[in-house]
Design goal:
alpha/beta, Rossmann fold, 4 domains, 17 strands, 35% helix, 5-stranded parallel sheet, Cobalt-precorrin-4 Transmethylase, domain 1
């Protein structure tokens, strides 16, 4: 099929049908200035509006005389007659949700200023076209009219300066990138407490949109909080991290969902881009969920994102999650504190060697349990650093990967052996160091994480 945009202003368009679906189609036809004639035995009251000709009877072939475009939202037997009459007059027909009787397909439409994006699935999957439309609508910038103005100005300059065609696109990209990096402020600066209160004063200038920084826990969606699920159900846009259960996410929300997660040694969406996406969507009144693994404020950059949002005048809500720093060890049968063994624990980011050095210098060896996040790939170096700070080579240690999921993997041994462990390739996990690891010997047979326990129960019932 050939995609095309039609100029229907002042041209005759026939809309066959008077029900809810036809009523939904009428507005877009009137908006583009078409002279619309509605033909149907019964017509909804809201369709009888100024500028629209209403014919209350069944369809007749000569209703299409002089028409440029036909929309048929009637039963299939009527659509069949409309198609035959249109074919005889060489007029295209958009038969709504009836591909066999259509010669044109409208698809999902996104309009922003003078930019129009249309998505077609050839009539096979209108719902998919709708989802794609929502996705494009979520990603397009709110200040697109500024982009149009810049492109229009550049086009005039190119003509005057006789700029070759192959040089125009790079120049335009440079101009648009400048606009994207430095958008004009759309809301005033506000105090933090006004933005995180969750209450919008209509006269305050605060955007109607909101960003919820939501913790998704260690992996199992059954560990999502009640509020997390509620925010996902209400969301207009979800930006989620790499370790989120995508299947469960899409079953929970109807909003467009985009992966923006960061994984070690892999390409990822820059943090600045994530911030801009959240800000732009919220400024357009969207309810945005930033779904983060574990807890948003435990090595999740949640604080950075909250500050960027507050500075931009966006309402922020923080929905705590089950932090992997505690959940992963406990699901492996390791308490991070235990009476008579450890009364405190220290959580460190394993990818930052300088920060690890400074932190370990501030505590006595064996006085606390150590939990390393994002440290599986650097386990050998981390073990060497601990021993250099006075931790014994035989100190109990554990590695827990994919905590709370069916792929959960656990290794235990001593600190000096940790570099010889062989965790699953590419698996995310935590390292635990300290005498608390010994507690696992008594607990691990009795401790089950929720998903594995549920699967075991289902298997038992099946048998």
């Amino acid at each position: 099929m050939l995609p095309a945009f039609l100029r229907l202003e002042s041209r005759k368009v026939v809309l066959v049908g008077g029900g809810r679906v036809a009523s939904g189609k009428l507005g877009s036809l009137v908006d583009v200035g078409a002279r619309v004639t509605v033909v149907a035995p019964e017509i909804r009251p809201e369709m009888d509006r100024p500028g629209v000709t209403v014919v209350r009877r069944g369809f007749q072939d000569d209703d299409l005389d002089g028409a440029w475009w036909v929309v048929s939202a009637a039963p299939p037997e009527v659509n069949r007659r409309v198609l035959a009459a249109a074919e005889a007059r060489r007029v295209f027909v958009n038969a709504v949700d009836d591909p066999p009787h259509a010669t044109a397909f409208a698809g999902g439409i996104v309009r922003r200023d003078d930019v129009t994006i249309a998505i077609s699935t050839g009539g096979r999957a209108p719902a998919l076209a709708g989802l794609l439309r929502e996705a494009f609508d979520a990603w397009l910038p709110g200040d697109l009219n500024q982009w149009l103005a810049a492109a229009d100005e550049a086009r005039r300059a190119w003509r005057d300066q006789r700029v070759p065609m192959d040089r125009r696109r790079p120049q335009l990209l440079d101009t648009l990138n400048t606009l994207y990096e430095n958008p004009k402020p759309q809301v005033p600066s506000l105090k933090s407490q006004e933005l995180v209160s969750g209450i919008r004063d209509p006269g305050s200038g605060i955007s109607a949109g909101r960003v919820s920084l939501v913790g998704a826990g260690p992996g199992d969606p059954e560990l999502w909080t009640v509020r997390a699920v509620r925010r996902l159900e209400e969301a207009d846009l979800v930006l989620y991290d790499a370790l989120v259960d995508v299947e469960a996410l899409r079953q929970t929300t109807k909003a467009p969902c985009f992966s923006v997660g960061k994984r070690a040694r892999r390409d990822s969406v820059p943090q600045e881009t994530i911030n801009r996406l959240m800000i732009r969507a919220a400024r357009r009144g969207k309810q945005v969920v930033r779904l983060k693994g574990g807890d948003p404020f435990v090595f999740g950059r949640g604080g950075e994102e909250a500050l960027a949002l507050v500075e931009a005048g966006i309402r922020v809500e923080v929905v705590p999650g089950v932090t992997t720093a505690v959940a992963a060890p406990e699901l492996a049968g390791i308490p991070v504190t235990h009476r008579g063994v450890a009364s405190a624990f220290l959580v460190l980011a394993g990818h930052s060697s300088d920060a690890v050095d400074h932190a370990l210098a501030s505590v006595q060896p064996h006085s606390v349990s150590i939990v390393f996040m994002m440290g599986v790939g650097a386990r050998g170096d981390l073990a060497a650093t601990l021993m250099a700070h006075g931790w014994r080579a035989e100190t109990p240690a554990a590695i827990v990967c994919a905590a709370s999921t069916p792929a959960q993997w656990v290794w235990t041994g001593c600190l000096s052996e940790m570099d010889r462990a062989e965790p699953p390739a590419g698996a995310a996990g935590v390292l635990v160091v300290g005498d608390v690891v010994r507690v696992r010997e008594a607990l691990h047979a009795a401790v089950e994480h929720p998903r594995v326990a549920a699967q075991a129960r289902q298997s038992s019932v099946a048998k």
